[in-house]
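Researcher: Quick one. two chains, 823 residues in total.
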Amino acid sequence: MDNKIVVRMEQITKIFGIVKALDQVDFELRAGEVHALLGENGSGKSTLIKVLGGIHKMEAGQIYLEGKPVTIEDVFTANQLGISIVHQELSFAPRMTVADNIFMGKECRNKLGLIDVRKIMQESQRLLDDFGSDIDPGELMCNLSISQQQVVEIVKALSNQTRILVMDEPSASLSLTEVEHLYEAVDRVKSMGISIIYVSHRMEELFRLADRVTVLRDGKYIGTVNIEETNEDDLVTMMVGREIESHYGEHKIYQNVVLELKHLSRGTAVHDINMQVRRGEVVGIAGIVGAGRSECARVIAGIDKGYEGQIILNGQEIKIRNPRDAISKGIVLIPEDRKEQGLILMQSVKFNATLCVLQKFIKAIGVNRAKQNEITDEMIDLLHIKVSGREMEVGKLSGGNQQKVVLAKWLATDPKVLILDEPTRGIDVGAKAEIYKLIDELACKGMSTILISSDLPEIMRVCDTVYVMRKGSMGGKISEDELVQEKIIKYATGVNA
Amino acid sequence: MSKIQKKERFQNGNIWKTVKNNLGIILSLLVLCVALTFATEYFLTTKNILNVLLQISTNGMIAFGMTYVILLGGIDLSVGSVVALSGTISMALMARNNWPLVPALLVGLGLGLAVGIINGILVTKVGMPAFIVTLAMMNITRGLALVMTSGKPIYVQDERLLIIGNGKFMGVIPLQVIYMLIMFLILFCILNYTRYGKHLYATGGNIEAARFSGIDVDLVRIIAYVISGLVSGIAGVMTAARLYSALPTMGEGAEMDAIASVVLGGTMMTGGSGTLGGTLIGALIIGVMNNGLNLLGVNSYWQDVAKGFIIIFAIVVDIVKNKKKK
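Model:
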């Protein structure tokens, strides 16, 4: 790798209303390097790449491309200059083919001015081959896995003579195995001599992928370090500006079993699951995406109707026919997708936080607003939700605070069994730590918790006992003293590693 | 209670929220009224104002029910035809079968209810798109009304019906207007002060999240269609009573007027956001505009054109407002 600077961004300032999203931020990208951009939500990393990509206009600052000052007016100029962004929320037409998506907006035409389907197919095939991918260009986008869709987006970006590829949290929605595919793709792009800006929350992957890391905090530039010369703790400190506790007190686990599953089965997704959760215990369910973990949780929470086997709560078998049954018995599921399943984004914090406990302040007719406010405030305090007021629209909160509102909503019901499905996905380190702390606190108060997570360090940090699921069945059970990453992976994949 | 708390309470109140969220159309309505006051002497008279209210009474009622359905991201195209069929059935039972007044009218309401249940079940349990279900139901009910009447009016002679349809409260305010206001109050309270109301907003805002929260989303949706159907049934009986006859063409185009009122009132077609107060104002705007064009002697065919433009204008204002927020 030579040390030629491809992009230099100097003193970039971007203001939204009264908020300084970027405050005189510097950034530079060398030719052929993978440069990670790290920071909590709201630190300005997305804004910075959007300025580079022509989506946002900066108020002050200058961008140099290979030493020459450039003005990036819009996305089109950015593309012309060889800058492409692969966004976090993938944007493609799901019911169109891979080839159509790659050539969207620059469709080849034949002599009649009609779309040249054959040429688009051939070109796409060539591009995919060049990238070493075996994706069929004729396949519909919606039939691909997320990592394959990402590959298509990358190929699409590369087809524009891209020299600088920006990837915005590409691994956020990927499973363990899919992440590997992503990393391979990044390596391949790098080997083509293209410079990459890689935005991420996940600390461990930076050490696998990045050459250098630039950290932003609260819209300010904190520093740039070579990856070999740093470690996880240092980076976290740079990100949050304070030390984060990584270890918590022991959970006190009582002997009485609160929730027991016996031979729980439903369709093909959940098969003969046996599990026990004791009072005060945090039980993890590990496994790869598609192993049936969420499906199992959905059965217990009554989301998916009809099951075989037994669900036993405090020694008594209970029947769960719908989510109401589960909630009234004290079993709640904090769903994996907070925007789709957890929140009514257009409504207020108050509306969301009290949605599951309406009966507490609306009897037959008439709303006891004082009571509703009281419940809301209690939850805002308990979870340290950062809001400007109870009436604030949930959609305007950061990911971490949204997740806390989701938690608030179900904790307000005073549950006995808490099932968390990927509770820290896509939220920043600080909020993550707070959620871990909360899980610990609840456990110490006697809550029985089931934590579903694809994040192994998370499982090992928080859980007392871990079950591993594989293809809808139980792959194995690991108790705390033997909790090691290799064992979980072994059970999850069925391979004797 | 301290001053600040009082202020906060006031700001959280639904009336304030309604006013704030609908500032654009409230102003439009005021401007329209002021302009008409200067343009014609007749506009700002008690008689004319009551006339406007009478004109919008059925449309307004149907629009209130429609608000529930649209808040869920659904639509109910059958309302206008339900008006015709429920009015027709009630009048036919009285005129042909000599049924007494009250049971006959109740059957009319029951029909609206039944159509609502069918709509709701087909949409939720069978999973058909609301547009298709209610479009079909619109054809079925209108068709049945035509069959029952053979296309001709059914006349009824009953003193009490005359009073129900054309009576005036304290000799001034038409009873039809009172019915509309009562219906508004009832539906307003359900929407804002009951658990069902919260469930409706939650389901309309995000049906998956509502389901995860333990809300019986199918029931919520069925009830909304039932309310819409029932309100249309009431509107049908009311209309028939006003005309003391049933015409199979009653309520033609009422679904579109209702949707227009709801949309003008700021309710999002995708669901989850909107107010009943907004719908009332929406209905008033359409009513005042029609009235004004009449008073100004504009050809009535132009009223549809004006209505169309007003809807587009209202939505554009809405979009601009939302963009500014972002």
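The mean pLDDT of chain A is 85.
Researcher: Thanks, that's what I needed.
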